[in-house]
From TrEMBL, chain A:
Domain VWFA: 370-542
Keywords noted in UniProt: Membrane, Transmembrane, Transmembrane helix
UniProt-listed SMART domains: VIT, VWA
Domain VIT positions: 71-199
Pfam family membership, one: VWA_3
Transmembrane segments: 36-56
Highest taxon in the source lineage: Bacteria
UniProt-listed InterPro entries: CHP03788 (IPR022440), VIT (IPR013694), VWF_A (IPR002035), vWFA_dom_sf (IPR036465)
Entry protein name: Marine proteobacterial sortase target protein
Organism the protein comes from: Microbulbifer taiwanensis
CDD domains for this protein: vWA_interalpha_trypsin_inhibitor (cd01461)
UniProtKB/TrEMBL annotation, chain B:
Protein name in the entry: Class GN sortase
GO MF annotations in UniProt: hydrolase activity
SUPFAM superfamilies for this protein: Sortase (SSF63817)
InterPro entries (alphabetical): Sortase, Sortase_D_1, Sortase_dom-sf, Sortase_proteobact_type
EC number: 3.4.22.-
Pfam families in the record: Sortase
Segments traversing the membrane: none
Length: 775, 192
């Protein structure tokens, strides 16, 4: 309309058809028609999409039924895949006295199927647990388990299983991973298995702590599959034995998302702790659970989960801090064991010692460091773990000083270093590393050995002025731990290896031992919110001088067998914690700890005397457990199959039998004398799955994504194009239709004369024509 | 005015989607040509040949399903590899090895006809040394990938995987269609 003004053409007023009310009405109706079109197209599109989705859902229902009916080929694959036949509930009663925690772990296996079942459960335990009891309980009957040599125990168990007797077997696969088998659970029956173990309480930087794992992160199994293995349906695990991990099938249980397990009422744990720290406490916290704390009249604390039960998808950790006025500098607990009827070999006095070296304070000069950060980006780290790992690494990079040198190594199936050699920690290099860290993705395998080898070989010849540190950020989910320890031991030179354990259920055995062999220290991060605080603890250790050349001097008349055998270097905040067996005399005199800290000699003395009887109960078992660990470490050097290795095996076996402990060579077995399963009834094997740890993505031999989304794209394209077409065509079609109509009407009716105007354009003509039609 | 805008938006979005789909299809078809060349070259030279210089995968086997055009199988089951052709999963075994060989492909590009394979149908697989391995379909099944793991066993065998249902709209569905073929043996002669 404005254009008419610019062009100078004036239209006589009588020729201009002004919009009438009718025009607006029609216009409105017209656009309403457009909206209807839009609505219909959308509705059709939604309907088609819903049909597709419906088809998918319908397909799912059918196929699940198909699968559950079972078939021959995949019978091994499908067992326990859906609803496990045996449900699990746990109850842990922990009692802490002094520096020892005694744990009664009761596990309830409820057979919900119509068959007789054998439950197979991969049981995670603390990495330093001394397992000293197994008991089955069915109704009122209790059957106490005994320690036997591993093969013998397995034989007894197999015989009982075949005979139809109730039996339980507890085998150690890793120091923190056991297999618990329970045979002949009747349909609908519940069998309780009670496991008893002791564990030392850790003390670091003013905080006591205790950990109870409830599930595990599936371990990666490196190596070539052994050619002669047949995957028998008897196997309860998922991985196949390989040349590097021959027992892979024992340590790779079926994993199931926690939500699926809790939906059927399985995998819940209730935890009760009775805490007698012997010191006035400032606070008690549990980082991953809500707890209720009650202080009792006798000064003890009783702690339980706030909701009574928790899902078994993360470690339970408990920290308690003494008041700063009563921070311990040293502690000593003893236990005296007399010769008993149970067998010899364990009498004597056992002691547990905690000694803090002096603190150097903050005045110390900071030495330039060369730090190699290794970050695990394997598939098991996906989910929350990789975020925690990245956050930790970013924090660590930001701590570097200009005179430090650093490198970052990322590994999964392959190992990639950010820089060929450690580079100066200038802002450009750090910025480059930080942005690369941000882009890291967690996928692939966990080939840890090449990464460790590369990290430990980064040290430049002649750069001895620097402190060499390797910070290893991982969940430790590997099956070849011992081979890696060997590697660390061989290629460490003067570097120190620190481990940062990541995730809701890290492999703490790997974390602690790798740091031990690497002469470093370990911290655990289980939650994104913990990163700051825990990394700060690590930085304190990395950046402050450590107490070295530590030696303990015992009174001369005593014969002392103490573990750890060689006192390790202690980082800031770390105490010396050891267990010892004392023979040859009354406990008296004093023990002296000598060492060097920040270039200065120090001597620390502690008077030896026996403590109250009940304060030190269980130290004997802890000592035996520590000795077994030391012997296993020796075996690492000599090899398990060598003569020396076999001698060590004999020693471990004897020790475990004397102290009634589970070990690599001894298992607990409990058998009921009565035959319960009628002859002719079949016994099914039912792996009890472990819950996928919180924040982790289920790591299976995952199916790839096998749809490109072509149909979605084509359908969207069709929908959009037809919508566009309708929008365009709708207008034209309407005009055309109206013209036809008008022509038709014109033929049938006399030419309207009421308006007396010459209409222009389709719309106007339509308008002119339309009143005729309405007549 | 809004009509024209909406029209333009719908048209361009529609064309974009159509183009995307066409690109996927073209990529799948074109890549097979390039990959076939790489495969032929690789069989002759005996070393890995990338089908195009920036490819992150390479051909590892040639799959001949019953009465169909042979497909070249690429290494890895990642999205990038599967866009170009069927992928041999990293965790699975090579043809003839005592470990299940797992080959996956998109249902809407290369494995659209997988549903037509009946038990008893022959499958041929050529490994990188040019030997043909024979398999016979023994079982087909639908599984929920969110609940089950890949059945990889320590015996030679072939497992073909694609998405299910074949005509579902949703690309991220959990169901997978499996075809399991038992291993019959290896023949040194090259058959076409």
């Amino acid at each position: 309309m404005h254009r008419a003004i610019f062009s100078g053409q004036r239209i006589p007023r009588e020729l201009v058809v002004l919009p009438t009310e009718e025009y607006y009405r029609r216009r409105y109706r017209g656009s309403r028609r457009g909206r209807w079109l839009l609505f219909i197209v959308t509705a059709v599109a939604v309907f088609v999409a819903a049909l597709g989705a419906g088809a998918a859902r319908a397909g799912q229902g059918v196929t699940l039924n198909e699968i559950e009916s079972g078939d021959l080929l995949f019978s091994g694959a499908q067992q326990g895949g859906y609803v496990p036949a045996v449900h699990l509930a746990s109850r842990a009663r922990i009692s802490v006295r002094g520096l020892v925690a005694e744990v009664l772990l009761q596990q309830e296996f409820a057979n919900r199927s119509g068959d007789w079942q054998e439950a197979v459960y991969v049981l995670p335990l603390p990495e330093d647990a001394a397992v000293n009891g197994l008991e089955i309980q069915v109704g009122e009957r209790r059957i106490v388990g005994k320690v036997r040599e591993r093969e013998e125990a397995a034989k007894i168990y197999r015989a009982a299983r075949a005979a139809g007797k109730r039996a339980a077997l507890l085998e150690q696969q890793r120091p923190n991973l056991f297999t618990n088998k329970v045979a002949n659970i009747a349909p609908g029956e519940t069998v309780h298995v009670q496991i008893r173990y002791l564990q030392p309480v850790h003390y670091d930087t003013g905080t006591f702590s205790l950990r109870l794992p409830t599930t595990l992160t599936p371990r990666y199994i490196p190596g070539e599959v052994l050619a002669d293995t047949e995957l028998v349906t008897d196997s309860s695990g998922w991985a196949l034995p390989t040349d590097q991990v021959p027992d892979a099938h024992n340590i790779a249980p079926t994993m199931q998302p926690a939500a699926e397990l809790t939906a059927i009422g399985s995998h819940k744990i209730s935890i009760e702790v009775e805490l007698d720290g012997g010191l006035p406490l400032a606070d008690i916290t549990s980082p991953y659970h809500d707890i209720d704390i009650a202080k009792r009249a006798d000064g003890r604390y009783s702690i339980r989960l706030r909701d009574g039960e928790a899902v078994m998808d993360r470690d339970f950790a408990l920290h308690w801090r003494p008041r700063s006025s009563s921070m311990p500098r040293a502690a000593l607990f003893t236990e005296s064991r007399k010769i008993t009827a149970e067998g010899g070999g364990r009498e004597g006095t056992y002691l547990q010692l905690l000694l803090l070296p002096p603190d150097a304070g903050d005045i110390v000069r900071r030495l330039p460091r060369e730090v190699v950060y290794v970050i695990d980006t394997s598939g098991s780290m996906s989910g929350n773990s990789i975020r925690q790992a990245k956050e930790s690494l970013q924090l660590a990079l930001s701590r570097l000083q200009p005179n430090d040198r650093f490198n970052v190594i990322e590994f999964n199936s392959d190992t990639r270093a950010f820089f060929p050699r450690p580079v100066a920690a200038n802002s450009a290099n750090i910025q480059q590393a930080r942005s690369r860290v941000e882009g890291l993705q967690a996928t692939g395998g966990t080939e840890m050995a090449p990464a460790l080898r590369l990290a430990l070989s980064q040290q430049m010849p002649g750069s001895d002025a620097l402190v060499h540190q390797v910070v290893f950020i991982t969940d430790g989910a590997v099956g070849n731990e011992r081979a890696l320890f060997e590697l660390i031991q061989q290629s460490l030179r003067d570097a120190r290896l620190f481990t940062v354990g990541i995730g809701s259920a890290p492999n703490n055995h790997f974390m602690r031992k790798a740091a031990q062999f690497g002469r470093g220290s370990t911290v655990t991060i289980g939650d994104l919110g913990e990163v700051q605080e825990r990394m700060q603890t690590l930085f304190t250790k990395l950046e402050n001088p450590l107490a070295t050349d530590l030696q303990l001097q015992w009174p001369q008349e005593l014969l002392v067998d103490a573990y750890p055998k060689r006192v390790p270097d202690l980082y800031r905040g770390e105490p010396l914690q050891l267990v010892a067996k004392i023979q040859g005399g009354v406990l008296a005199g004093e023990v002296q700890l000598r060492g060097r800290l920040a270039g200065q000699q120090f001597v620390h003395k502690l008077a030896l005397k026996e403590s109250d009887a009940d304060q030190g109960a269980g130290i004997g078992s802890l000592w035996a457990r520590a000795k077994i660990e030391a012997l296993r470490d020796q075996q690492l050097q000599s090899g398990e199959q060598s003569d020396a290795g076999k001698t060590l095996r004999g020693q471990i076996l004897q020790l475990a039998l004397d102290h009634q402990l589970a070990s690599p060579y001894t298992s607990f077995v409990a058998v009921e004398e009565k035959v319960v399963r009628p002859e002719g009834e079949r016994l099914s094997k039912s792996p009890v799955p472990n819950a996928v740890a919180r924040g982790q993505v289920l790591q299976r031999q995952t199916y790839p994504r096998t749809a490109a989304g072509l149909y979605t794209q084509l359908l969207t394209a069709a929908g959009l194009l037809s919508l566009a077409g309708l929008l365009r065509r709708g207008r034209l079609a309407r005009g055309k239709m109206l013209r036809h109509l008008r022509d038709l009407l014109r033929k049938m009716l006399p030419r309207p004369t009421t308006t007396g105007r010459c209409a222009r354009g389709a719309v106007e003509r339509g308008l002119v024509a339309s009143p005729v039609r309405t007549r | 005015m809004w009509r024209t805008l909406l029209f333009a938006a719908c048209l361009s979005a529609g064309l974009w989607q159509l183009g995307g789909a066409a690109w996927l299809l073209a990529k799948a078809e074109l890549a097979q040509v390039l990959i076939s060349d790489a495969w032929a070259e690789q069989l002759q030279s005996g070393s890995e040949v990338k089908p195009w210089p920036w490819a992150d995968t390479w051909p590892v086997a040639k799959l001949q399903l019953y009465r169909q055009e042979p497909l070249i199988v690429l290494a890895g089951g990642s999205g990038q590899a599967l866009a170009f052709g069927p992928g041999l999963l990293e965790t699975s075994g090579a043809p003839g090895q005592p470990r299940t060989t797992v080959i996956a492909a998109h249902r809407d590009t290369h494995f659209g006809d997988l549903g037509e394979l009946e038990p008893g149908a022959p499958i041929q697989l050529q490994d990188s040394r040019g030997r043909w391995h024979s398999y016979r379909v023994s079982e087909t099944r639908v599984v929920d990938s969110g609940r089950e793991q890949l059945p990889i066993f320590a015996v030679p065998g072939l497992l073909l995987v694609t998405c299910y249902p074949f005509d579902a709209i949703d690309a991220g569905g959990p169901l997978r269609y499996l075809v399991y073929a038992e291993y019959l043996g290896v023949s040194e002669t090259v058959q076409l």
